[in-house]
Design goal:
Blueprint: H1 2-33, H2 38-71, H3 79-90
Length: about 100
């Protein structure tokens, strides 16, 4: 009977230490290999770089479109830009021009 009591006292004494070590091991494992762990973040770095390049390309395209729209606004109408859009969209051309259709 005294052996059983000794085992329980040892468990009572060391239980907080065991729980603390178990929690440390659990959180250490998940901080390295978990969903938001170090290895997952390292795998996301190349994806973030490619998305950044795509974003830069889209920003450049957006800026180009904004500048074209700015030229076609009624308060600052550029006749050259307007003529270019008429030629592209409506297919107009001068009578003296030769049109080559692909």
């Amino acid at each position: 009977m005294s052996e059983v009591v000794d085992i329980f006292t040892v468990i009572k004494k060391n239980l907080p230490i065991f729980i603390g070590l178990s929690l440390c091991a659990y959180f250490s494992y998940h901080s390295i290999f978990g969903r938001y762990g170090y290895t997952h973040i390292q795998n996301l770095a190349p994806i973030a770089a490619s998305k950044s390049k795509q974003l830069d390309a889209l920003v450049l395209k957006s800026n180009n479109l904004e500048s074209q729209v700015r030229l076609l606004r009624p308060d600052s109408l550029s006749l050259d830009a307007l003529e270019e859009q008429i030629r592209v969209i409506l297919g107009y051309s001068y009578g003296s021009e030769i049109v080559i259709i692909d």
